[in-house]
């Protein structure tokens, strides 16, 4: 191909990309519901919507109008934009919404910077899922990166959902980023999730969970996408798109009082300030007491785990743990959380059994499904396996290795928490007369490649050279896309960087 042709193609691509971006930033999406032809009702809608202008930014980016007794309207601005951008978006959306939904009793408009809606019914404090919409970039990551990219995005949205749901009555907003390393490329995913602040914590969590599910259905592997509901939205991109919120003030500017009110103001303010200072002091003391108590508990848990390492007398394990012993605290779950997630280890939640003990399916408070591996008291090698996996797997990051989310060492319980893999293990398909038919040669080749990449990482590419010593079909898990994930590092052993041979004083491996 001639150089001129290459330049022309590149310029055309850049121009088309810029056009796509500029068009998407000015988009307007409208959804209408329930026809009505009553002129009086139309007047109420116009009156209610018009009354939103001038009030949204001054009320922290969210406002519901009470100008009409028959129509309720609300407006939500993105929590990272300024008051001018907020009011501009609302003023643009109102006439467009009236024009696009002229004969309807309920409607919503979604813009890049705001959501405006109205209804003849009650919508304040109500989770509304009657409609949603989505936008996504046509570009995708490479096929080999899709799984890793999607997992990282899922982790990020889980964290941001919790952050937004725990917001206050003025703003429910979560934003952040995560970096994905894979196939020689480093990608950063930026995401923002927001609910209308009139929703309860559970309502906000459910709304954003629905949005995350839609992203998984429509946009797997897409570099950027948005999902909108009447009460919330989710947006992510491989480009930084948000500001550092909050830019919209949560309250209006204080106005100066008149001169004849000066004396009364002093008498009122002084007691209030004194009382407030007293409450602040009490609050600080309570916070410090709680922090001290939590610190003691964390120290106790960390010490407990360290003593468990000492009991095993494994120098290599202790050295590996010592490299990042501070991260142990970040991976620990309390027992109550695990009991709630598994319904107190209900037999109905059992999904597997091995030499280590039973494996349960659980659901964490943020809605994430997990596999919970519980050490059996009758297991002879259980403690050693627990230490191995807690130390090793937490340090291993690869798409073909099962991901350890955390562990629990409390009240004689030793529990490992993993990502949930829906398609079980390879032996479930290989040795089942019905299921083995699902494994065509393309899937088998894909699984072989995944196992090979995982083993190569363990032997050559990870910062710790790991010998698995228990690789078998039951320890090869399969995710929803039939990607192989090596699991069960209970018998694994660390080798030196240049070590290629080793001796063992006992037989390793299980059937």
From TrEMBL:
ATP binds at residue 373. It comes from the Eukaryota. The keyword Electron transport does not apply. This is Gnk2-like domain-containing protein. Keywords: ATP-binding, Glycoprotein, Kinase, Membrane, Nucleotide-binding, Receptor, Repeat, Serine/threonine-protein kinase, Signal, Transferase, Transmembrane, Transmembrane helix. It is found in: Membrane. One of its GO terms (molecular function) is protein serine/threonine kinase activity. SMART domains: S_TKc (SM00220). One of its GO terms (cellular component) is plasma membrane. The chain crosses the membrane at residues 266-289. Residues 1-22 form the signal peptide. Residues 23-123, 131-241 form the Gnk2-homologous domain. It comes from Artemisia annua (Sweet wormwood). Residues 345-511 form the Protein kinase domain. Pfam families: PK_Tyr_Ser-Thr, Stress-antifung. InterPro entries: GNK2, GNK2_sf, Kinase-like_dom_sf, Prot_kinase_dom, Protein_kinase_ATP_BS, Ser-Thr/Tyr_kinase_cat_dom, Ser/Thr_kinase_AS. It is a single-pass membrane protein. Its main location: membrane.
């Amino acid at each position: 191909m001639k150089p001129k042709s290459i330049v022309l193609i590149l310029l055309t691509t850049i121009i088309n990309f810029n056009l796509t971006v500029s068009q998407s930033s000015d988009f307007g999406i409208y959804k209408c519901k329930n026809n009505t032809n009553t002129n009086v009702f139309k007047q109420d809608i116009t009156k209610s919507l018009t009354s939103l202008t001038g009030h949204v930014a001054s009320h922290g980016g969210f406002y519901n109008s009470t100008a009409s007794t028959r129509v309720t309207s609300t407006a939500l601005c993105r929590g990272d934009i300024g008051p001018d951008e907020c009011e501009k978006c609302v003023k643009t959306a109102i006439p467009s919404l009236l024009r696009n939904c002229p004969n309807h009793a309920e409607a919503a408009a979604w813009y890049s910077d705001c959501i405006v809606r109205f209804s003849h019914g009650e919508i304040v404090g109500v989770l509304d899922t009657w409609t949603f919409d989505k936008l996504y970039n046509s570009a995708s990551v490479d096929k080999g990166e899709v799984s890793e990219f999607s997992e990282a995005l899922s982790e990020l949205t889980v964290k941001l959902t919790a952050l937004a749901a725990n917001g206050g009555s003025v703003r429910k907003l979560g934003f952040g980023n995560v970096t994905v390393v894979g196939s020689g490329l480093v990608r950063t995913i930026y995401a923002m999730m927001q609910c209308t602040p009139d929703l309860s914590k559970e309502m906000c969590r459910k709304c954003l969970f629905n949005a995350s599910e839609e992203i998984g259905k429509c946009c797997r592997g897409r570099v950027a996408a948005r999902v909108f509901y009447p009460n919330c939205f989710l947006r992510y991109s491989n480009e930084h798109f948000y500001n550092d919120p909050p830019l919209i003030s949560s309250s209006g500017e204080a106005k100066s009082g008149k001169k004849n009110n000066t004396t009364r103001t002093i008498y009122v303010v002084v007691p209030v300030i004194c009382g407030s200072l007293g409450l602040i002091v009490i609050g600080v003391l309570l916070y410090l007491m709680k922090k001290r108590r939590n610190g003691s508990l964390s120290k106790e848990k960390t010490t407990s785990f360290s003593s468990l390492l000492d009991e095993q007398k494994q120098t290599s394990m202790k050295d590996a743990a010592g490299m990042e012993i501070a991260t142990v605290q970040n991976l620990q779950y309390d027992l109550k959380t695990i009991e709630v997630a598994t319904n107190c280890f209900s037999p109905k939640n059992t999904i597997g059994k091995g030499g280590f003990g039973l494996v349960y399916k659980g659901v964490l408070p943020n809605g994430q499904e997990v596999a919970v591996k519980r050490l059996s008291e009758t297991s002879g090698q259980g403690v050693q396996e627990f230490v191995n996996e807690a130390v090793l797997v937490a340090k291993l990051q690869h798409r073909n290795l099962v991901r350890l989310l955390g562990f629990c060492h409390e009240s004689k319980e030793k529990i490992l928490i993993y990502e949930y893999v829906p398609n079980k293990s390879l032996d479930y398909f290989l040795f089942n007369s019905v299921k083995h038919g699902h494994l065509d040669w393309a899937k088998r080749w894909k699984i072989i490649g995944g196992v090979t990449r995982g083993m190569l990482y363990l032997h050559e590419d990870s910062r710790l050279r790991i010998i698995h010593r228990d690789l078998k079909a039951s320890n090869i898990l399969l995710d929803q896309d039939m990607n192989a994930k090596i699991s069960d590092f209970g018998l694994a052993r660390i080798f030196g960087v240049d070590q290629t041979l080793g001796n063992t004083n006992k037989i390793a491996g299980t059937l």
